[in-house]
Amino acid sequence: MEIDSLYTQVVLAHNSSKRNRRHLEHQSAVVQGVNPSCGDEISLELDISEDQVIRDVSFVGTGCAISQASASIMADLVRGKTVSEAKNLSDLFFQMIRGGAIDPSLLEATVFSSMASLPARVKCAALGWRTLEKALAEGESKSQ
User: pTM for the whole thing?
Assistant: First the structure.
């Protein structure tokens, strides 16, 4: 299967999936993210335990298929991880979309590796991840 075909299948599947597009019953953090260049927006909700494990993560929002699919994939990747592990995955994702190495721990998120050659779309793919970074940073400042 060609990478373009795989990319299309993964993005379309996550964009149409409702699995991660919902409100959480218990929220430790709710953070808004906006891509001002195109108007994509999400509200990211996290349920983080006292021992810093992301028990659940979801989002609601509007935007292009890339931004919505990337947020959904990000939610799948960080759910059940520690805050530290989620930060590491986020760092790996940003390195990858800037043309760096593709790390296998990113799983489905590796389909966005081609974003490095499409700078106008990097912000779309990064929206959920930037919002996650903001939520984790806010959570750290509250716990200190």
Answer: 0.91
